[in-house]
TrEMBL record:
This is Glycoside hydrolase family 3 C-terminal domain-containing protein. The keyword Hydrolase applies. Keywords: Carbohydrate metabolism, Glycosidase, Hydrolase. Belongs to the glycosyl hydrolase 3 family.
Length: 760
């Protein structure tokens, strides 16, 4: 089918294309043969509303494989695995004839309280960007599109449709936009979804700076911008700003506004052409890609992939005395409601109707030859009488006391983690914390398995010998948990977010969720581990941490700058244990004596490597030169500062295995001099510097001896003068008793000469 060019459409037809026909469809233009396409959530499975289903399709969507939500999948740090899951998502999308899957979500986990953290990948932009690009590539390889969301700085749910994220330029660029930039530049998602919130006071859906200057002019985005569902504030300015497709339908109201604006001259028709043209491009891509994958869906194969991905998402936080893996003939007490009724995804628009659902209890029973007792332990119901809580606890203690080992499933009740609102604390319910103490007293051989979409405080971490952070793992999480418990899968996941000791320690604690619809990002660049490291705070488990049933050694780390200016890091990693495993190798950089504020170390590259027992592999990791750059607020651009960078090769952000240094040549930042340029800046200028140096020497010569002598010994006059604006230097002339002084004209002439020489 050939999709017409935008020039063949009337103004009304073009305007009609810029908003949806329904909740999930774009509009058709039958006269010229433009079909409607369907878009649907996303992100960790397909949520396609059944014909005649409920309005949002949350309760009644076509069964689809529920892969681990981003909180789990991201913990794999495995680009290849994430790509394969993306391919499977693309396959299911294509089979169901959907043009665009609404994901991935890659917002930064600024606070553990964000109700939607389960849908996001990390507190770090490189992890979010690299893995986000892998998902996009995987999905789009099947002839369907993605929607990179929620663009941008949508880091809380509270007041999300109005709140302004007030972020300074450096953190905005270096933390909150960097991941989006990476995905756009590396993977060209078919669409980008603008968020509900405002950024520094401007709605994302009508921000020309965000949607056009940054996204298109700087990053080269070629696709279409779609609004989050209901994110449009004022449609006409939004269209002019670069917000192409409003979703869902506005019942024609905003289309008419667009037509009227063109007619009264307040909107140029070319803006409508551009947006409608992009909708046509999207429809073209979707129709060309349609049918790329033939059905029916191989439910078993995708369930198996969901199981593999879930196994790779489980983080072994601690394993004292090698309590794990469990012997298959051990007498096991499984305790906790989550073992029987899994929490496998978060609430809201991303809820998938799974093709099947494993429970950990059944899967543990299936894998073991031993006896498995089960006790509910606690109730996740809204209202639970104290007597019931005690009875459940007593029953659990009884089961624990007659078993070799206890597997205790704890976690957050589903109602605590949802799109649309945030959490109020990071605590597990009190009944669960009491249960841990009672169970430990009855049987110290206790393994805790956690089910949660956002991090929780672990006040028992020192007392429990083994902890698995099992996040929300999708439909095969139960089987995957059993695989890891018994060692059929050797855990290899690592934390993409820090587990803090207390909520009060977290970076955004004092600025979350803001007030009067403004949230000040007061912690600036210091998000996640950047904060805990800079403040030297103790954490429960650091960013990048995760154990294995085997061990790894790192040797021969080296770094060099390659022909592209990127830093190539190599390290030999050896599996020093007796079982096969995977290690996630991380590279962090820092620059001693940097002229700008920086975190003590920042993640720049990572790799997941599979190793047989005794095997060594040399792993090569590339730190892109552009990822070393900071956002320089003076010229408003990325700048790589020159210097001797420290390259930490690490098993976690707090387990540095080897450090090397590499000299990186910096970018030249030549800023024009002005009267407000400081003496320091002028003195370091190649042209103006020597002239001013000579003038100062002359002036200082004229200074009265007694004036100089009142200064305490060692006071550095030149340092004092460093920040003195050159425009005020005339005053110094007066001080020197130099009647002629250094007049403003002389200074202006000097600055003009220096600036002209620099331009040449
Ligand atoms: C969510 C998006 C989602 C959309 C469609 C919005 O409320 O923020 O992530 O894709 O609804 O369901």
């Amino acid at each position: 089918m050939s999709i017409p060019d935008v020039t063949e459409l009337t103004l009304e037809e073009k305007a009609s294309l810029t908003s949806g026909a329904s909740f999930w469809h774009t509009k058709s233009v039958d006269r010229v043969g433009v079909p409607a396409i369907m878009v649907t959530d996303g992100p960790h499975g397909l949520r396609k509303q059944r014909e005649g289903g409920d309005h949002l399709g949350i309760g009644d969507s076509v069964p689809a494989t529920c892969f681990p939500p981003a909180v789990g999948l991201g913990s794999s740090w495995d680009i290849d695995l994430v790509h394969r899951v993306g391919e499977a998502l693309g396959t299911e999308t294509s089979i169901e004839n959907v043009g665009v899957l609404l994901g991935p979500g890659i917002n930064i986990k600024r606070s553990p309280l964000c109700g939607r953290n389960f849908e996001y990948l990390s507190e770090d932009p490189i992890v979010s960007g690299v893995l986000g690009a892998a998902i996009v590539r995987g999905i789009q390889s099947k002839g369907v599109g993605t929607s990179l969301k929620h663009f941008a700085a949508n880091n809380q749910e509270n007041d999300r449709m109005r709140s302004s994220s007030d972020v300074d330029p450096r953190p905005l660029r270096e933390i909150y936009l960097r991941g989006f930039q990476r995905v756009v530049e590396d993977a060209q998602p078919w669409t980008v979804m603008c968020s509900y919130n405002r950024i520094n006071g401007v709605y994302a859906s009508e921000d020309p700076w965000l949607l056009t200057r940054v996204l298109r002019d700087e990053w080269g985005f070629e696709g279409l911008v779609v609004s989050d569902w209901g994110a449009v504030n004022e449609r006409v300015p939004g269209l002019a700003a670069g917000m192409d497709l409003e979703m869902p339908s506005s019942n024609g109201v905003t289309d008419a506004q667009i037509v009227a604006a063109v007619r009264d001259g307040s909107l140029v028709e070319s803006a409508v052409d551009v947006a409608a043209g992009r909708v046509l491009d999207l429809v073209r891509k979707a129709t060309e890609g349609a049918g790329a994958v033939a059905g029916p869906l191989d439910v078993d194969a995708h369930h198996a992939l969901a199981r593999e991905a879930a196994g790779r998402s489980i983080v072994l936080l601690k394993n004292d005395g090698d309590l794990l893996p469990l012997a298959k003939d051990a007498k096991i007490a499984v305790i906790g409601e989550f073992a029987e009724k899994p929490r496998y995804q978060g609430a809201g628009s991303s809820m998938i109707n799974p093709t099947r659902l494993d429970s950990a209890l059944e899967e543990i029973r299936a894998l073991t030859a031993g006896e498995v007792a089960y006790a509910q332990g606690f109730s996740n119901a809204l209202e639970v009488a104290d007597e019931q809580t005690s009875a459940l606890r007593d029953e659990a203690v009884a089961a624990a006391s007659v078993s070799d080992v206890v597997v205790l499933f704890l976690g957050l009740p589903a109602r605590l983690e949802s799109e649309g609102y945030d959490r109020e604390d990071i605590d597990l319910p009190a009944a669960q914390l009491h249960l841990v103490d009672a169970v430990l007293a009855a049987n110290p051989n206790t393994v805790v398995v956690l089910s949660n979409g956002g991090v929780v405080a672990l006040p028992f971490a020192d007392r429990v010998p083994a902890i698995l952070e099992a996040w929300l793992l999708g439909q095969a999480g139960g089987a995957a948990t059993a695989d890891v418990l018994f060692g059929d899968v050797n855990p290899s996941a690592k934390l993409t977010e820090t587990i803090p000791m207390r909520l009060e320690d977290t970076p955004a604690f004092l600025d979350f969720p803001g007030e009067f619809s403004h949230t000040r990002y007061g912690e600036g660049l210091f998000v996640g581990y950047r904060w805990y490291d800079a403040r030297r705070l103790e954490v429960a488990f650091p960013f990048g941490h995760g154990l294995s049933y085997t061990t790894f050694s790192y040797t021969d780390a080296a770094a060099q700058v390659d022909a592209n200016g990127d830093v190539e890091v190599t390290v030999a990693v050896t599996n020093t244990g007796d079982r096969a495993g995977r290690e996630v190798v991380q590279v962090y950089t820092s620059l001693n004596g940097s002229s700008v504020q920086r975190a003590p170390r920042e993640l720049k590259a990572f790799a997941s490597v599979a190793l047989e027992p005794g095997e060594t592999q040399v792993v090569t990791l590339t730190v892109r030169r552009k990822d070393l750059a900071y956002w320089d607020i003076r010229p408003g651009r990325w700048v790589v500062e020159g210097g001797e960078y420290t390259i930490d090769v690490a098993a976690s952000s707090r387990d540095i295995r080897s450090s090397v240094t590499v000299a990186v040549e910096g970018d030249v930042v030549s800023l024009p001099l002005s009267r407000t340029s400081s003496m320091g800046e002028v003195l370091s200028h190649p042209i103006a510097g020597p002239v001013v140096q000579a003038a100062i020497a002359q002036m200082m010569g004229g200074l009265d001896e007694s004036a100089a002598s009142i200064m305490p010994e060692g006071v550095d006059m030149s340092k004092m003068m460093e920040s003195f604006p050159i425009g005020r230097i005339g005053m110094m002339g007066a001080l020197a008793g130099d009647g002629a002084g250094t007049g403003p004209e002389m200074i202006d002439d000097l600055l003009a000469m220096a600036n002209a020489a620099q331009r040449d």
